[in-house]
Amino acid sequence: MVGMQPSRDRVLVVGLGADGWSGLSETVQRRVLAARIVIGSERQLALVPDVDGQQKCRWPQPFTVDRIPVADGVVVLASGDPLVSGVGSTLVERLGAERVEVIPQVSSVALARARMGWPAQRCAVVRVAGSGVAPVLRELAPGARVLVLSSDATTPAALSSLLVEAGFGATRVTVLGDLGSGTESRWSATAAQVAGSDRVHPRLNVVALEVAGPARVGWAAGLPDDAYEHDGQLTRRDLRAGALARLLPLPGQLLWDVGAGAGSVGIEWMRSHPSCSAIAVERNPVRAERITRNASRLGVPALQVVVGSAPGALEDLPDPDAVFVGGGASVGLLDLCRRRLRPSGRLVVHAVTLQTEQLLVEALDADGGELTRHTVETASPLGSFTSWTPSRAVVQWAWTKPSGGGTP
């Protein structure tokens, strides 16, 4: 396969429904047959009639759009609507809409909603292909409706086992197989029943979940501390909520969580919106492994973990939209973070020592921002009575980079 061309040629992305080639209009069929190169999965390519001189190519392995030729006469085959968690979305994001033409069919999501009678605004959609089933955990709440775009025939059982482990074994699981085809099927049971079944599911399936279980964690900042596995290095609940309020998670933005500890700030940043991303930087390898476990258990397994010490470990990372420094700040680290932040980026730094506190006072004097001192007291037993137990005071500096990109 050749690489992407510097010209302004366009690539055509064609969605295939469960009815395959026959479901395409004659006009679209003619465009596919006239293509010089057709790219797709083995199953998709087999649906297209052979044409003398036409090159059929399976998806490049490992998959990357950089290995897809972008030129007139190139057709990329996709499933259903290519802009629903499909290759069309990836190509448009990388190349721009002006270089990608998309011809969709009815998506499996639309068909699944129709079969279940679920309005679009009343259900979430999660794609688990290639990423494992952990992303579903972000969506679990009593009464929630979730459509899961499966990886293969093993997804329903793996998903149900995860639900049982998380305490949602009573969830109603409906496996919708081969949607839109002549072999379409539907089977329902509880997650506990599906996990314990040896039933063979269709390879092409969508799983509909009617969630039943406890209300444990939500999307608001400040999850309970016991939601995390930790060794004491954890930004506590109330401080975490305050920090995230100032970090201001926004769709599609990237956070650096520097000195991540248990990873709580980066995890809750990513839980705030499916398109948010985060990189947790932690020098302790044991804690780094713990961050990965916490992220998976809380439904954001895509959290990236970098083992290393700041500021050196930050040099090769992509520029962030927000940075959280949970402790151990230095002049060099703050300078690097302020320089690397994108315009309008947010920086939040916590200090528990007098030395770091003085550093933040100097930063406030030099660059402005907001300096606050947080003290939290919790009620606890004192003999036969109840009294307040104070936690260590934390000084927080929050600063926003000017929209022009410079520093004051």
CATH class of the largest domain: Alpha Beta
Class by SSE composition:
alpha/beta
Query: SSE order, as H and E?
Result: EHEHEEHEHEEHEEHEHEHEHEEHEHEEEE
Contiguous low-pLDDT stretches (5 residues minimum) are 1-7
Helix content: 25-40%
Largest sheet features: 7 strands, mixed
CATH topology of the largest domain: Rossmann fold
Distance between the termini: 49 Å
Give the integer mean of the pLDDT values. Answer: 92
| Main sheet strand line-up | 13-12-11-14-15-19-16
Q: Give Rg in angstroms.
A: 25 Å
What's the tally of helices?
11
Q: Look at the structure and name the CATH superfamily of the largest domain.
A: Vaccinia Virus protein VP39
Share in β-strands: 15-25%
Description of the structure:
This protein has 408 residues and is α/β, with parallel strands linked by helices. The protein has three domains: 11-106, 3-Layer(aba) Sandwich (Cobalt-precorrin-4 Transmethylase, domain 1); 110-210, Methyltransferase, Cobalt-precorrin-4 Transmethylase, Domain 2 (2-Layer Sandwich); 225-400, Rossmann fold (3-Layer(aba) Sandwich). The protein is 25% helix and 25% strand. It contains eleven helices and 19 strands. The strands form four sheets. It has a seven-stranded mixed beta sheet, sandwiched between helices. It has a five-stranded parallel beta sheet with strand order 3-2-4-1-5. The protein has a five-stranded mixed beta sheet with strand order 6-7-10-8-9, with helices on both faces. Strand 12 (277-282), helix 9 and strand 13 (304-307) form a beta-alpha-beta unit. It is globular, with a radius of gyration of 25 Å. Residues 1-7 have low confidence and may be disordered.
